[in-house]
Amino acid sequence: MKGLHKDGVVILDFGSQYTQLIARRVREQNVYSEILPPETSLNKILNREPAAMILSGGPSSVYEKNAPEFDPEILETSLPTLGICYGLHLLAQQQGGAVESTGQGEYGFAEISADDSTGLLEGISSPSRVWMSHGDRVSQMPDGWHTLAHSSNGVVAAMSNKDQTRVATQFHPEVAHTEEGETILRNFLFKIANCAPTWTVGKFIQEQVEMIRKQVGDGKVLVGVSGGVDSTVVAALLHKAIGDRSTAVLIDHGLLRKDEAKTCVETLKNGLGVFIHCYDESELFLSKLDGVVDPEKKRKIIGNQFIYSFDRIASELGDMQFLAQGTLYPDVIESGVSKGKTAHVIKSHHNVGGLPEDMQFELVEPLRELFKDEVRNVGRELGLPKALIERHPFPGPGLAVRIIGDITRERINILQEADHVYMDILHEDGLYNDIWQAFAVLIPVQTVGVMGDQRTYENLLGLRAVTSTDGMTADWYRMPPETLTKISNRIVNSVRGINRVVYDITSKPPGTIEWE
Ligand code: XMP
């Protein structure tokens, strides 16, 4: 890693719920950022040749016995440093100041007034609205430090050492609610730390192509693709790096969206010249799912069959030494790799149920430093079609978890058609990109309707649309009534087998996004 992202920012994660957000905000300024565990030694940090360091917030108090461990030398370095919340407390305490509990804490919006508008707070209005989330405060400023801003209830809101090489905020500049947070971060990155805005998509692609060539040598790479944006970008990158020595494999379990397998193959093969095999394994999957209604059983059956199929296909293709997959940075962070554990976890949901542990592949994961929106930018730069790049996420078990009850070919067809109409209208009405994920669900209930003079007795269809940032929590999308009317009319009139449509208004929690 040494020097690869020279001049980036190292973020030490003291456990804040916002650490990933800090990393994203830094990258939005075209500066590379990397999250490391709190105990990372100064030596290790300096080896990466960063331009600056950020100490994140965290749930602990610096005066507690179980506060996270860290290398005290990190607070003595001349590396420009920004402490946020817990990071501020750490700097204050370690430099000889004092930190105490505020009693009931301060959570939510606050107003701060500047005491020194140079450096970190240059160009910031006073007062300015910020987002606070803390239970401790600085009760004694360290020697040689001064207050840059205070909040309306007298708490030190920002502080710095004499020459502003070390600065800190009690509030969270990375959170959108801090109205001038972007300017504050920019001041830190470009005025204080002199970072260069060189982290660009073009540079990332160039770097990855070189790294893939170096890792793979003369070897051959199998790329598992699913039709989604991450794996398609991986396939395109691999193709760019090593051409025909990479082979993409799409396993069609028969539960993809309408024309999904065809579109994926066409995009990769005709659009980008990628060598791809599509395996129609639908007979196998659907026969195993016959008569199964329990959601967890469905997931297990699909996960296991995926492993058998993949295993068989990999051995059919022979002499592949590498497996490329679309692991993203949030998966890396969640799997604990960035927290100092070395276990190499294969992203399980990406491949439905995970791959067999005894598979003798070395992994190639060119996206493991990226967030989803950055992957989309890479896709754009590589020339992937817009429709694919902007596509909503799709679960590994596919339509199996959107057909409640029995799964049959007939029910799959009905759902594929209805979902297709639904997506068409969201595009027509310009709503698709406002929604994080939208899909139709086939409900095993028949209701009475009337069409023309005929009585109908057909299936019920649920529509789901949610806004979210990461799928962990979600809110139901306030769909305009005229769009709902259009969707309902068109589906009932054009999809045989559906005569009634309902809209799901459950948020997550307490609901989940998928119905099964
Ligand atoms: P839930 O239903 O848990 O879904 O609120 C959150 C997000 O995860 C997706 N999802 C999956 N993705 N394999 C996947 O690759 C799965 O088994 C799976 N289950 C749910 C879901 O579509 C939503 O985006």
As for the CATH topology of the largest domain, it is Rossmann fold
Query: For this structure, what is the CATH class of the largest domain?
Result: Alpha Beta
- Structural class, by secondary structure, is alpha/beta
Ligands bound to this protein structure? xanthosine-5'-monophosphate
Radius of gyration: 26 Å
Report on this model:
There is one protein chain. This protein has three domains: 2-192, Class I glutamine amidotransferase (GATase) domain (Rossmann fold, 3-Layer(aba) Sandwich); 201-389, HUPs (Rossmann fold), CATH 3.40.50.620; 408-503, GMP Synthetase, Chain A, domain 3, CATH 3.30.300. Helix content is 32%, strand content 23%. With 516 residues, it is α/β, with parallel strands linked by helices. It has helices at 19-28, 42-47, 86-94, 181-192, 201-216, 229-242, 260-271, 282-289, 295-317, 329-334, 372-381, 386-389, 409-428, 481-494; strands spanning 9-12, 33-36, 52-55, 81-84, 98-114, 128-140, 146-151, 156-160, 166-169, 221-225, 246-252, 276-280, 322-324, 362-364, 437-451, 454-467, 475-476, 498-503. The chain has 14 helices and 18 strands. The chain is globular. It starts with 8 loop residues before the first strand and ends in a 13-residue tail after the last strand. A nine-stranded mixed sheet has the order 2-1-3-4-9-8-7-5-6, sandwiched between helices. Strands 12-11-10-13-14 form a five-stranded parallel sheet, sandwiched between helices. Helix 7 (260-271) links the parallel strand 11 (246-252) and strand 12 (276-280). The chain binds xanthosine-5'-monophosphate.
